[in-house]
Design a protein that fits this description.
EC 5.3.1.9, Rossmann fold, binds 6-O-phosphono-beta-D-fructofuranose, Phosphoglucose_isomerase_CS, 512 residues, gluconeogenesis
Length: 512
């Protein structure tokens, strides 16, 4: 007997398929499949439009996926997420990033508020000179302890940086040396960002940064360190004074931690108020996600399309192109969020999954990407669902022609992917033919400010969670990163039994 979940999938697979052109015969399609999420802003409201009309989601598919969501107990799992239940079953933990934005179990929200008050106090004290003149911050972390800060600082601090922030993640010393080159040791502080405070790359880079300060005449280098961590005891052991340790809760996952003290460099660069605005934008998405159901829940609707392309159309990748220079790091950020969360092969119950899980997330910046990879999107043999992200308000103050060209190109790409055609004068040359019927979604922001960035990130967090629920997997663990780490440690300790190829490589590099 088939379970309600497999029955829902069977119905989805049997649903009639339509081309985009057929779907667009419905004059109400754009209204039905695009919607805004808004929040209060100075002088009214601001928000983001999510247009999923150029995807193949049809009435049949939407109701089929709504049935699937019900069979997967989406509402129950969402309630568990937002109430602080231990939904990360393999690690016996809750996943309470939304509590950082004021949506969650009351004690967790209160704890987050108290910890945020500490971040604010330290940020303001530093701005007021408590650590002497501070012009530069070298933020050292990796994965979730670096990608969020790097994205947010790059997006928000271009023209209003109060402190010049350098995010260093790679253990390759080239990265740290580059930051040293750009900073004056006398006016530099170091943030060591690590949930566990044990990650080898981060701790090695942090030690080298202290040595650099010491070698350049700073008498008390650890006095220049701020620790951002869920393991404050380890930071104390490492020598950081408690007044400069900004803790966060164990229940905030690494790739969901930008909202916690891991966001310290953002607040230091753009000011506490902007950091709070980012939290508020994220909260607007949380409330939408909590209160809307079925297709009206926009992150869930996006997950319907994601699952349709992955499971039914066999798409192995999805691409994201930000038509905004300030969001250049957004595809990198999404890669960790989506692939570390949903790149799994067993269900929450430990059973093998029956189909593909996370698509491979990739992307870039428009219009650059048009001149590099869009060939494949238009004429290649892969079907790649694409998201376009853009802002109506420009980020520059140059001739408005710049922004107009940027946006028209963005919209033209979505239109061209869908329409297809033939560029030959007789319309018959196969090399110049565009098959069309290729899907895209457009996320159009009123403006790319702090609140909007918060909203964009939170939207994708919930989309990732919704995908995990439809797949029946746990998005909050990441055991897949462990085996390689252990083997590297074994090599370092001179142990481990390795294959002949690895042994030969180690020997060649003088490491065995
Ligand atoms: O190795 C993967 C990972 O655990 C990520 O999930 C995490 O964001 C990153 O390493 C850094 O971990 P930490 O913040 O503990 O240094």
């Amino acid at each position: 007997m088939s379970s309600p979940v497999s029955a829902a999938w069977e119905a989805l697979r049997a649903a009639p398929q339509h081309t985009l052109a057929e779907l667009f015969e419905d004059e109400g399609r754009v209204d039905a499949l695009s919607a805004r999420i808004e929040w209060e802003a100075e002088g009214g409201s601001a928000g983001v439009l999510f247009d999923w009309s150029k995807t193949h989601l049809s009435e049949d598919l939407l109701s089929g996926f709504e049935a699937l969501a019900e069979a997967c107990d989406f509402a129950g799992k969402r309630e568990a997420l937002l109430s602080g239940a231990k939904i990360n079953v393999t690690e016996g933990r809750a996943a309470e990033h939304t509590a950082q934005r004021g949506v969650g179990a009351e004690p967790s929200v209160e704890e987050a508020l108290a910890l945020h008050a500490r971040i604010k106090m330290l940020v303001e004290a530093i701005h007021e000179g408590a650590l002497g003149e501070v012009k530069h911050l070298i933020h050292i972390g990796i994965g979730g302890s670096a990608l969020g800060p790097a994205l947010a600082v790059d997006a928000l601090a271009r023209d209003l940086a109060l402190v010049d922030v350098h995010v260093v993640s790679n253990i390759d010393g080239v990265a740290l040396e580059q930051a040293f080159e750009a900073c004056d040791p006398a006016t530099t502080i170091i943030a060591v960002a690590s949930k566990t405070f044990t990650t080898i790359e981060t701790m090695t880079n942090a030690t080298s940064a202290l040595n650099w300060l010491r070698d350049n005449g700073v008498s008390d280098p650890t006095g220049r360190v701020v620790a951002l961590t869920a393991s404050p005891d380890k930071a104390v052991e490492w020598g950081v004074d408690e007044t400069r340790i900004l803790p966060f809760s164990e229940s905030v996952g690494g790739r969901y931690s930008i909202w916690s003290s891991i966001g310290f460099p953002v607040a230091l660069a753009v000011g506490w108020e902007e950091f709070e605005a980012m939290l508020a934008g994220a909260q607007a998405i949380d409330l939408h996600f909590r209160d809307k159901n079925g297709r009206d829940n926009l992150p869930l609707r996006a997950a319907f399309a994601d699952q349709y392309y992955a499971q039914i159309r066999g798409c192995q990748t999805r691409a994201v192109f930000a038509y905004d220079e300030r969001l250049g790091l957004f595809p990198d950020y999404l890669q960790q969020l989506e692939m570390e969360s949903n790149g799994k092969r067993v269900t929450s119950e430990g059973e093998p999954v029956s189909g593909p899980t996370a698509a491979i997330t990739w992307g870039g910046v428009g219009t650059d990407a048009q001149h590099a990879v869009f060939q494949l999107l238009h004429q290649g043999t892969h079907l790649v669902p694409v998201d376009f992200i853009a802002s109506i308000a420009p980020g520059d103050a140059l001739d408005p022609a710049h922004h107009a060209i940027l946006l028209t190109n963005c919209f033209a790409q979505g239109a061209a992917l869908m329409a297809g055609g033939n560029m030959a004068s007789d319309g018959k040359d196969p090399a110049r033919a565009f098959p069309g019927d290729r899907p895209s979604a457009t996320i159009l922001c009123d403006d790319l400010d702090s609140a909007t960035l918060g909203a964009l990130i939170a939207f994708h967090e919930h989309r990732t969670f919704a995908n995990a629920v439809l797949l029946g997997i746990n998005p909050f663990d990441q055991f897949g990163v462990e085996l390689g780490k252990k083997m590297a440690k074994d090599i370092e300790a001179g142990g481990g039994d390795f294959d002949a190829s690895t042994k030969a490589l180690l020997e060649k590099a003088g490491l065995s």
